[in-house]
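note to self — DONT lose this again. spent like an hour looking for the file last time. sequence + predicted structure for the chain T wanted, 274 res
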Amino acid sequence: MKTREITDLDLPELLPYSQLSERQLLHYKEPELGLFVAESPNVIKRALEAGYVPVSFLMEKTQCQGVMAEVLAGYPDIPVYTSGKDVLETITGYSMTRGVLCLMQRNPLPDAEELCRRMHRIAVLEDVMNPTNVGAIFRSAAALGVEAVLLTRGCSDPLYRRSARVSMGTVFQVPWAWLDTDDWVSQLHSCGFLTAAMALCEKSLPLDDPILNEIAQLAVVLGTEGDGLKSSTIAQCDYTVRIPMSNGVDSLNVAAASAVAFWQLCRSGTRFSG
């Protein structure tokens, strides 16, 4: 391993960790694909297994053993910077239980239309801006049978560090793509999908309505925190679907709602796959 112990963050090689924002990393190598920082051994392992290429590692000295020793052995030519816990806390702003960061190159993303043509159950996120919610939705998608996630450009990037960490690295397992047209509902229709908007409307279907289980290709559409889906999006979707509530609670956080919706709507999707 090319290991180098550091005591501060002034090295030019460490600027992506210490001084560049995630948006700056995204555009760092334009017109080539940008960079991102993955955090924690499990997230880093899943990114590497998905084919992402490391640029460098930055970790506490104690983390060079065990799980990460096996990871590093597979990348003997990649620089490894080691530091004390206080240096990493300066970067992240909090105490890390497993102090490991990895700067990685981004991979090309698939075309949204080509990606979803092969699927039966997908999720669409419209302007979900909170990276924690994006990460949690990806984790639910991976666990509950969603085959792909499409995002409007108003969403937080799934590869932002917090999103990837909250997702437990599933952002590297579930295929995803950006939607680059405002008329994306029509685009999904052209691919054979019916669309189910998760929204609180008077004429909405309950989540367990049997008609939803008979749909071969279904896109579950989720909206931003607080305001939910745009009224124009709801109007374009084939169905409006609600989660029945009790005790005067009117709605769930979008991440919690996604888990409930995915569990109910993706069970039937297995009948159409294969």
